[in-house]
User: What shape does this take?
Amino acid sequence: MIALTSPRRLRGASIPLRLAVALTAFAAGPAFAAERLVASVPGVDFDVGATPVVQTVAFDATVPISGAGFTARWTAVVADEENGLAPWSLDLAATITAPDGSSTLSWPRFGGDRTYADYPLQDFVTGFADVAGSGDFQWRFTSVGPPWVAGLRDVTYHLTTRVDDVVGTYPGSVASGPTWSRPYYIGGISGLGPVAYQATAFEVPVSGGYYFESVVTQGDHFLALYQDAFDPSQPLANLLDYEAGNGSSPNGPPRGTARISALLFAGRSYHLVASQWSASSPGQSYVTTVTGPAALLLDGDDTLFADGFE
Assistant: This one.
């Protein structure tokens, strides 16, 4: 694991700091969380209803494959518009089989929103036993089933390979600052605001799977990830993912912890937004830990090396 304890780069000291981190990278042992993107193949749009949909995707990657990614726009083709019960993006699941059939990934419920509003899927899963990346990978998709039909649009399939973790720790606070009306879900606005927020603009120098965990010491927390642009007056525009850190999910993180995982791409802009939960609860300090194949490039940083180190 490569640990970055000083995530915000001091301009006058950026070169010595990055050299020190680079030396740490040589000494680091193997890690098993970060995934680097190695291949992408566009696919056709399709719908998932009563019958599972199987897509065969030909890749030609030259490195061992440990994970897969999927990007698309989920949409409800036939939805329960009376009470919004189905389908949800959270109903989508996939099973991915390696070309020789020796290894299979089960990816249950990898959507993420309990609503039939359109949802941007951009995530990854790990667990392949370092399979060959050249050949036909079989993707089998299922959803909630009849009478509801889910649709996948602007589809792209991805392969990833395991690399050393690069871990950055980013402290912040929403005890005060600018305010917004935060999202309630991917298509709704919370009525608990306006609340304080802190937005961090960044890019990634290496495309791949990144994991964000943001923690407050007590109470509830909220974290959102935006792609390309962030406008606090339009909190649903460009919203890629979010996590309500109130501990309400039976299998989710504990109260006060918000987690987001996403497949991020070099050359695109991102914003990570931490938020006070409600106007009636005090805002507080938080610590966000980011794990991925490279360090985040915060807005205004100067890149000296292509591998993500300065």
In short: Residues 14-27 form the longest helix (14 residues). Helices lie at 14-27.
